[in-house]
Automatic annotation (TrEMBL):
<keyword id="KW-0808">Transferase</keyword>
<keyword id="KW-0333">Golgi apparatus</keyword>
<dbReference type="InterPro" id="IPR007754">
    <property type="entry name" value="GlcNAc_II"/>
</dbReference>
<keyword id="KW-0735">Signal-anchor</keyword>
<dbReference type="GO" id="GO:0046872">
    <property type="term" value="F:metal ion binding"/>
</dbReference>
<keyword id="KW-0325">Glycoprotein</keyword>
<feature type="binding site">
    <location>
        <position position="235"/>
    </location>
    <ligand>
        <name>Mn(2+)</name>
    </ligand>
</feature>
<keyword id="KW-0812">Transmembrane</keyword>
<comment type="similarity">
    <text>Belongs to the glycosyltransferase 16 (GT16) protein family.</text>
</comment>
<dbReference type="GO" id="GO:0005795">
    <property type="term" value="C:Golgi stack"/>
</dbReference>
<dbReference type="Pfam" id="PF05060">
    <property type="entry name" value="MGAT2"/>
</dbReference>
<dbReference type="GO" id="GO:0008455">
    <property type="term" value="F:alpha-1,6-mannosylglycoprotein 2-beta-N-acetylglucosaminyltransferase activity"/>
</dbReference>
<keyword id="KW-0479">Metal-binding</keyword>
<keyword id="KW-1133">Transmembrane helix</keyword>
<dbReference type="GO" id="GO:0006487">
    <property type="term" value="P:protein N-linked glycosylation"/>
</dbReference>
<dbReference type="GO" id="GO:0009312">
    <property type="term" value="P:oligosaccharide biosynthetic process"/>
</dbReference>
<feature type="binding site">
    <location>
        <position position="343"/>
    </location>
    <ligand>
        <name>Mn(2+)</name>
    </ligand>
</feature>
Length: 420
């Protein structure tokens, strides 16, 4: 509309030479452009609200998402509750960095993480979002006990753990392991190694992708924010200086490392604790305590197809092997020379609750936190050491499989469209 008005204004018609008429015309044009801008911004502001009123169910049906069950619909409703502890912490700090903690079902670990978060300097200035894959009472109780900042819980409504007896859970007709779909008349597409889907295993990648889409584009609390968001997991011990260090990294990033897409709390090799040098480090994107902004999220979101069709059930390997390489330049992340987060715990996520390979680990950790880890320990005058051509998963890796079922690909794509 605006373009049309502009070309009208440039149109040289002798009858418009009259100066008074020109002034009148420009007044009209200005008014019209303001009105049309208002209309556009009203549209932008009301669309998400509208979809809430029309009812989530309609939107979901249009998208071809699995039909919600009573429980999943209750979870969706719960996800719209406001954060808790607003009475204790009525205002978030300006430029706060929202923290998203994504968890499954290892309460003995979550207790450790929450305890470590309670000691983080500055945590009360921000919002903690806990994203649950499945609903587990014990996990829930731990989160409900948090009193050190605003907390919002969200539950992945399409978690296989929420669907018993139908996709995304196990359906009676599903092929298992190396079944031959033709001979057994079962449903499912095997992965590149001939194995059929396992709901427990695919739930990890689904949850991560659902959470990313929901936090950036779905939640009222975060969908408008243009700062960084920090992501941590239920087995990441967070040091007291993590939040202050992260604020420094985020503010230094544009100057010190224009090529950096993110800031990391820990080295990308999760077994290392840092070099202890007097310098910042730029290296390949890590998966422990990573923070990035909406610009980067938009780039990731545009690669939904790459993410959703890559035959690997690990979200991080999927990112390293397909999404990051597709950006066209190395994806560096900026961090300090001492770690501010540590990955702990021996139990992998797809062990834990299994019958045959129970992983018993009481979550006791012995992570040394020195005085230097209790206060911000990054200096703004430091230079940046860049690690080029590091080892690790990259373009060309075929994937570990576990993600061959077309229903999983479609569900994943649907998550990317849910809020658009
Ligand atoms: C977000 O981060 C990227 C990568 O560091 C940067 O290029 C971009 O300018 C940032 N966007 C905003 C809005 O700050
Ligand atoms: C947890 O396990 C470790 C060894 O794995 C043991 O030393 C410790 O006492 C246990 N703690 C509890 C509370 O059971």
């Amino acid at each position: 509309m605006l373009a049309v008005f502009c070309s009208m204004a440039n149109y040289k018609n002798p009858r418009l030479k009259n100066a008074a008429f020109k002034r009148f015309l420009s007044l009209v044009l200005v008014t019209l452009s303001i009105v049309s801008l208002l209309i556009v911004s009203l549209r932008i502001n009301t669309t998400p609200g509208l979809s809430e009123n029309v009812g989530i169910q309609n939107v979901m049906e249009k998208l071809n998402l699995p039909k919600g069950n009573e429980f999943s619909i209750r979870l969706e409703e719960r996800n719209r509750l406001p954060p808790r502890n607003i009475d204790l912490y009525p205002k978030l700090a300006k430029d706060h960095i929202t923290i998203v903690l994504y968890v499954h079902n290892r309460p003995q670990y979550l207790r450790v993480v929450v305890k470590s978060l309670s000691n983080v300097v500055g945590i009360s200035e921000t919002l903690l979002i806990v994203s649950h894959d499945g609903y587990f009472d014990e996990m829930n109780k731990i989160v409900e006990g948090i009193e050190f900042c605003q907390v919002k819980q969200i539950f992945a409504p399409y978690s296989p753990h929420v669907f018993t007896g139908s996709f995304p859970g196990v359906s009676p007709n599903d092929c298992k392991e190396k079944d031959d779909a033709g001979k057994k008349h079962c449903i499912g597409d095997p992965d590149q190694y001939g194995n059929h889907r396992s709901p427990k295993i695919v739930s990890l990648k689904h949850h991560w992708w659902w959470m990313m889409n929901t936090v950036w584009d779905g939640l009222k609390e975060t969908r408008g924010s243009d700062g960084h968001i920090l992501f941590i997991e239920e087995d990441h011990f967070i040091f007291p200086n993590a939040y202050r260090n992260l604020q420094l990294l985020v503010s230094l990033k544009p100057d010190k490392c224009a090529d950096c897409y993110a800031a990391n709390l820990a080295p990308s090799d999760v077994n290392l604790r840092g070099e202890g040098w007097d310098s910042l480090i730029a290296e390949r994107m890590g998966n422990v305590g990573y923070a990035f902004n909406r610009t980067v999220w938009r780039k990731i979101h545009r690669k939904a197809k790459e993410f959703c069709f890559f035959d690997d059930y690990n979200w991080d390997i999927t990112m390293w092997a397909t999404v990051y390489p597709s950006f066209g330049s190395p994806v560096y992340s900026l961090r300090g020379p001492r770690t501010s987060a540590v990955h702990f715990g021996k139990c992998g996520l797809h062990q834990g609750q299994g019958k045959s390979n129970d992983c018993i680990d009481n979550g006791s950790v012995n992570i040394q936190v020195d005085d230097i880890d209790k206060v911000a320990n990054i200096r703004s005058e430091w230079d940046v050491e860049v690690y080029e051509n590091q080892q690790g998963y990259k373009a060309g890796f075929k994937g570990w499989g576990g993600w061959g079922d077309n229903r999983d690909h479609q569900l994943c794509l649907n998550f990317a469209q849910m809020y658009h």
